[in-house]
Amino acid sequence: MRYQGTLIAVSDMAKAKHFYETVMEQKVMMDLEVHVAFEGGLSLQSNYAELVGADLPKKDQPNNFQLYFEVEDLAVWQNRIKSLEGIEFIHEAKEYPWGQRVMRFYDYDKYIVEVSESMVSVAKRFLAQGLSVEETAQRTMFPVELVESLIG
User: What is the pLDDT of residues 45-72, one digit of tens each?
Assistant: First the structure.
């Protein structure tokens, strides 16, 4: 068995497709109007209850699930997302003990979206700030060999 991706039910396909394609920079792999599949495994479905043939109750916010994206410059992305009308932040960028900066917000269908710095960019930031390879490895929980491979 092989995991193939995540499908989310959306209330407005045009709005959701625009958000994920244009704002979140996901490349459309297939567009069937009621179903859009992006490279990387994310799919949108506009008529989900009809598709599965069941009377499914609509949930206001599935707060036990999130879509996860990584970026190199979180500040740029936070400004970009904050400029959008109708996007509600759960929290703006905050830094976790291992150094990764993360923000979370709701998309237009109230799915939680997390956008985080890649851990490689976190390690490179620590090295650029003068932390040693060993200090960077300890803080990020990366093996020393991986941190050493990032130098240069």
Answer: 998 877 777 777 777 777 888 999 999 9
The CA distances from residue 44 to 12, 61, 149, in Å, are 10, 16, 38
Task: Spell 126-140 as b/e; 16+ CB within 10 A means b.
Answer: bbeeebebeebbebb
Q: Strands across the sheet with 88-95, in order?
A: 66-71, 112-117, 101-106, 88-95
- Cβ atoms of 43 and 6 within 8 Å: the answer is yes
Which one-letter amino acid corresponds to residue 136? T
| pTM of the entire predicted model | 0.87
Which residues have CB under 8 Å from 6's CB, separation 6+? 41, 42, 43, 67
Tens digit of each residue's pLDDT (9 = 90 or more) over 78-94: 999 999 999 999 999 99
Beta-ladder partners of 89? 105
What type of residue is 102?
V
Helix (H) or strand (E) holding 80: helix 74-82
Q: What is the per-residue pLDDT across 10-49, written as a single tens digit (0 to 9) for each?
A: 999 999 999 999 999 999 999 999 999 999 999 999 988 7
